[in-house]
Amino acid sequence: MKRTLFLRIFLGYVAVIALLAAAVTIFAPPLMRTHHIEERSASLDHMALLLEGQVIPYLTGSETGDLAGLITALGSETGTRITVIDQAGNVLADSEKEARDMENHFFRPEIQASLRGEKQMSIRPSSTLKTNMMYMSVPLISGGRVAGALRLSYFMKDFDALMAALRADLLKVVGVVTLVALVLAFFLARSEAAPLREVIDASTRVAAGDFDVSVSTRRKGEFKGFARSFNAMSGRLKAMFGEIRLQNEEILGILASVQEGLCVIDQDARIVVCNASFRRIAGRETPEGLHFWEAVRSSAAAEAVRKARETGAAAAVEASIGEHTFSMTVTPLAQGDRFVVSLQETA
């Protein structure tokens, strides 16, 4: 039982720790991925706003410099692939490829959205680089009309590598925290099981009639208060049972000094307690537990007992028991479920 109590508490903590560790391991990576995608999308959006002013003059003809060189330099500085597309979907410049070698982008979903004046973020495979990319495409508006599109791309392989590293670090942290939590749970379960075990053992001894038992009050917190209450309770029980024992001894002493035969019977007419005079009259050393008519062979006495039990009122009769005649009374006690039988020999 001692080991079972500890195991129950410890396994309860283990279950909670395992559920929390599993929840973190399962739900944290998707949340981290979503958060980082949103963060990267916001970063690309902010970068696009900064680049719009530098790219639009090349589309309107007010700037005739080297657009390809500018885009290549910006892409190298930011670590982002940058593509400029005109209204017809032709690639004017790209930081990773030669524009003349690239196919028309008019039917790319994000370019379609930008040429309609909408901003769009999507993740899909790149037909040029043959790898998954995150695309942020924004419209380049000049004079109230869409002059082209600016697309910023981010390699998802870099993102996946980052997520793999974060996932590995997360598993390490979860493993260490779980191990520490299990060690703490072991000692916590043991510290909780010990006082509970002591209280259970003490309660068992009290139930068996040992009122000298006490629980240690050296512990702190609720256990200390509970231990004080338990000790106070066992002390009061000891005092109460001591008083009851003294009262019983007094009653037995009084019964023993009475010359009349006295006994107490219950609702089933079984003898609960009797004095020495009654034992002499019944001719039995231990009539307790017997039915009254089994101990006292008298039909008149048995009839008086039956009448008192049925009516709940006192009954009196003269009964012959053996060679003697007795004046017998059956009186109900206050609770009504027990009766006092008195037998006084008549002259």
Structure description:
With 347 residues, this protein is an alpha+beta fold. The protein has three domains: 2-161, Beta-Lactamase, CATH 3.30.450; 209-249, no CATH class; 258-345, Beta-Lactamase, CATH 3.30.450. Helix content is 55%, strand content 21%. It is built from eight helices and ten strands. A hairpin with a 4-residue loop joins strand 1 (81-86) and strand 2 (91-94).
Features:
347 residues, alpha+beta, Beta-Lactamase, five-stranded antiparallel beta sheet, 10 strands
Write the layout of secondary structure elements.
Blueprint: H1 2-60, H2 67-78, E1 81-86, E2 91-94, H3 109-115, E3 120-125, E4 132-142, E5 145-155, H4 156-207, H5 222-257, E6 261-266, E7 271-274, H6 276-282, H7 292-295, H8 299-311, E8 315-321, E9 324-332, E10 338-345
Helix pairs in contact: 1-4
CATH superfamily annotation of the largest domain: PAS domain
How many domains would you count in the coordinates? Answer: 3
Looking across the biggest beta sheet, what order are the strands in?
2-1-5-4-3
Specify the overall morphology: rod-shaped
Task: Summarize the model shown.
With 347 residues, this protein is of the alpha+beta class.
